């Protein structure tokens, strides 16, 4: 871990079958910096090696922001921070391939890549302060096909479009209605609800649970796309990532002003 960074990732064990994986970046609204993501990835690898059947992932309960998503400061040097080999995508794949159940524990708002982090978990337990906002359009960043598919498989198409076109929040009540949240509870019962669910899962046959999870992951990924369509998507994303609008979006965010996009 970078000693100059405020970001931390810690692991606590409720028992030998349940790990609480807590990430924190308090000086930057729990932003997902590259170092924090690398530490999350390392922790997930270690827990998988220990065959821990259930992981509860989240920040400390009661904060206004669960995570602000990508650390915008780092985007100044990266024209496509959500490409396949980048830290966030690595962690999302690690969660989806984890040989056990990963539960997202959400209190507060999730933004951008943090929403994708939650959506990549197997289950979501949240309190009434939770909300989900997909904000890449605010800075001119096009989302990936794989990321859109994670939403496509979980929310109605018109809700998906609303989230990505407007960048407005999906509040906890609507998120529960559309199945994004499995359990919506009061803040003071959030931890206990997650632990109760985790204990119930951990008591089941771990190989059977892991097998079902992997089957569902494979079935979700069975989305045949013609080569020509993939090439078209790649070109559209390349144009957006290299556009003046993307630079304007980043500059506007840093200067705390409204971006002026010109479509070029």
Describe this structure in words.
- By secondary structure, this protein is an alpha/beta fold.
- It has a single domain, classed as Alpha-Beta Complex (2-enoyl-CoA Hydratase, Chain A, domain 1).
- It has 11 helices and 10 strands.
- It has helices at 34-49, 72-75, 87-97, 113-120, 145-152, 157-166, 172-177, 190-202, 206-221, 227-241, 244-255; strands spanning 8-15, 18-24, 54-58, 65-67, 101-106, 109-111, 123-127, 131-133, 170-171, 183-185.
- The strands form 2 sheets. It has a 6-stranded mixed sheet, with helices on both faces.
- α1 runs parallel beside α3 (87-97) and α3 runs parallel beside α4.
- It is globular.
- It comes from Pseudomonas fungipugnans.
- This is Methylmalonyl-CoA decarboxylase.
- InterPro entries: ClpP/crotonase-like_dom_sf, Enoyl-CoA_hyd/isom_CS, Enoyl-CoA_hydra/iso, Enoyl-CoA_hydra_C.
- Pfam families: ECH_1 (PF00378).
Question: Which properties best describe this structure?
Answer:
single chain, 264 residues, alpha/beta, 2-enoyl-CoA Hydratase, Chain A, domain 1, 6-stranded mixed sheet, 4-stranded mixed sheet, 10 strands, 17% strand
How many DSSP helices? 11
Query: What value does the average pLDDT take?
Result: 91
What is the domain total for the residues?
A: 1
Number of strands: 10
CATH superfamily: 2-enoyl-CoA Hydratase, Chain A, domain 1
* Strands in their spatial order, largest beta sheet: 1-2-3-5-7-10
Query: How far is it from the N-terminal to the C-terminal residue, by CA?
Result: 39 Å
Order of helices and strands: EEHEEHHEEHEEHHEHEHHHH
Write down the overall geometry: globular
Q: Output the radius of gyration.
A: 18 Å
Helical percentage: 40-55%
Structural class of the secondary elements?
Answer: alpha/beta
The CATH topology assignment is 2-enoyl-CoA Hydratase, Chain A, domain 1
Architecture per CATH nomenclature, i.e. the level-2 architecture = Alpha-Beta Complex
Protein name: Methylmalonyl-CoA decarboxylase
Organism: Pseudomonas fungipugnans
Pfam family, one: ECH_1
Keywords: Lyase
